[in-house]
User: Which sequence fits this backbone?
């Protein structure tokens, strides 16, 4: 098989554009939302991204050549690889943003660095899950319903991608509506631009032109100091400081399920490639996927990487292994030379926002397409906690914008809670749901599937597992900080001797009791229920 063929050019154009759109999110979210300094983004985070891209893309290209040689074929397509968009969004909004607020409340001298370090540890955790899961992925897939695995991912796609970025679409309708219309036309209307021009290139070009015409671009001032060679530098000291800070425990309820979802989504992508005729080793593919994420964290990026869905589409384009090699080299150069700084200056996030919204749509739709219709209630049940977690995040941000947590203003506490209650909003339910959102989604979706399939004992066991997690503080346990509500695991803090342990040992005890009562209902249901034959016939 050739190192590069004509189809690789088409595949490179499509995957590189997709990657550039994702990379545009990093300066936008890290600088605008998290308030990170540009030197952290361009000096550490993007070089870390470059390392992960190079490791992953070169391996999957080599893997494709190896398969082609073994099977004596020339039509083998490499697995696509890049940033994990849902995890990127989740780590920004559910890990690093709360970590920064905690650091501010504690008077940490540099809260940005602390938040970044917590993100690095979260990324390492995700990479370890992906790597170790390579040996047990199929067992996990067999034990957990597909509806439950996809539900939380679809909730994240709908809320944190589609709904979150639709704010921008309606805030800037000239750019937003036109690019969204093009995305709907190209990707749902089953048409493509004339002349073989990639659809993503058309959307990004039109969005950029309209952004300049409506003064959304340029974004800030062009800082040439960010342009220049930035060699990747190991950040093991920062990783160690983040790991030993003790502040990572509250975010395990985000890291564990996101790592698991990334692992299983990658496994499904490998199976999709096998269905298209390219059968790769799941173990080696998943191991390198985890190593790519681990390498990203070790060199400064807090964002996990993933095997992409869409291998069959790239193969139909005629892409082979060359597109993967070229993509790894291209993205590496963009990240290491500081080229993302002028790109982010010239191409605002609004230009590619419709593509991100479409990705959210696809993730949401996939949960329904890939599950039996009878399990759709479970998908919806699993989506709701994630959507409510996003809504709670927005509500807390609104409270902060109104002065809550600021010097001289109300702090996050019973006084602020009373204000929400006066408006008829039991917001403490959102605070509890926010801690362990993805775990809660997985559990409720699984219980719903088991109830639909009348496996009530298994459903009860999942409820009892939720009860134990609540008792330990991994689920629904929260406490006030002056400018936020955060996870609270005083029992774990006490066991490890953490100095900041505070409050009751079992802050989520009511939830532990509630889940146990739920399990009891399921276990004894056969004594007080009969089959609804009319519903069964319908």
Assistant:
């Amino acid at each position: 098989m050739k190192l590069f063929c004509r189809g690789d050019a088409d595949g490179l154009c499509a995957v590189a554009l997709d990657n550039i759109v994702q990379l545009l999110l990093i300066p936008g979210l890290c600088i605008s939302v998290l308030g990170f300094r540009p030197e952290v983004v361009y000096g550490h985070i993007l070089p870390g991204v470059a390392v992960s891209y190079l490791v992953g893309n070169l391996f999957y290209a080599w893997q494709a050549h190896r398969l082609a040689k073994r099977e004596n074929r020339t039509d083998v397509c490499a697995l696509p690889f890049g940033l994990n968009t849902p995890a990127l969004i989740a780590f920004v909004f559910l890990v690093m943003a709360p970590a920064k607020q905690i650091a501010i409340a504690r008077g940490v001298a540099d809260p940005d660095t602390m938040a970044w370090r917590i993100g690095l540890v979260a990324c390492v955790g995700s990479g370890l899950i992906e790597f170790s899961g390579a040996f047990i992925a199929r067992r996990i897939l067999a034990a957990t319903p597909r509806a439950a695995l996809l539900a939380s991912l679809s909730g994240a796609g709908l809320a944190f991608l589609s709904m979150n970025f639709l704010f921008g679409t309606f805030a800037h309708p000239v750019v937003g509506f036109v690019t969204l219309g093009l995305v709907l036309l190209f990707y749902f209307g089953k048409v493509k631009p004339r002349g073989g021009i990639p659809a993503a290139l058309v959307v990004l070009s039109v969005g950029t032109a309209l952004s300049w015409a409506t003064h959304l671009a340029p974004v800030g001032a062009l800082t040439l100091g960010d342009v220049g060679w930035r060699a990747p530098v190991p950040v093991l000291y920062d990783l160690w400081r983040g790991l030993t800070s003790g502040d990572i425990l509250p975010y395990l309820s985000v890291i564990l399920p996101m790592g698991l979802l990334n692992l299983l989504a990658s496994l499904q992508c490998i199976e999709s490639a096998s269905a298209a005729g390219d059968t790769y080793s799941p173990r080696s593919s998943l191991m390198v996927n985890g190593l790519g994420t681990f390498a990203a964290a070790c060199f400064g990026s807090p964002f996990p990487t993933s095997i992409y869905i869409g291998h069959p589409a790239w193969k139909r384009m005629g892409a082979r292994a060359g597109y993967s090699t070229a993509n790894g080299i291209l993205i590496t150069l963009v990240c290491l030379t500081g080229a993302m700084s002028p790109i982010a200056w010239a191409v605002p996030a609004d230009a590619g926002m419709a593509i991100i919204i479409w990705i959210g749509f696809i993730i949401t739709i996939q949960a329904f397409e890939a599950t039996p219709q009878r399990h759709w209630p479970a998908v919806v049940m699993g989506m709701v906690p994630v959507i409510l977690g996003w809504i709670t995040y927005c509500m807390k941000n609104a409270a902060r914008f109104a002065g809550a947590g600021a010097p001289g203003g109300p702090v996050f506490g019973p006084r602020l809670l009373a204000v929400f209650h006066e408006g008829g909003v039991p917001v403490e339910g959102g605070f509890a749901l926010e801690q362990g959102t993805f775990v809660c989604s997985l559990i409720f979706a699984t219980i719903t599937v088991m109830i639909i399939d009348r496996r009530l004992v298994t459903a009860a066991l999942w409820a009892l597992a939720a009860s134990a997690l609540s008792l330990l503080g991994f689920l629904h346990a929260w406490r006030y900080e002056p400018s936020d509500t955060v996870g609270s695991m005083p029992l774990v803090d006490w066991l490890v001797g953490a100095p900041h342990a505070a409050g009751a040992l079992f802050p989520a005890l009511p939830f532990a009791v509630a889940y146990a009562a739920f399990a009891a209902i399921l276990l004894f249901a056969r004594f007080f229920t009969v089959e609804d034959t009319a519903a069964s016939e319908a």
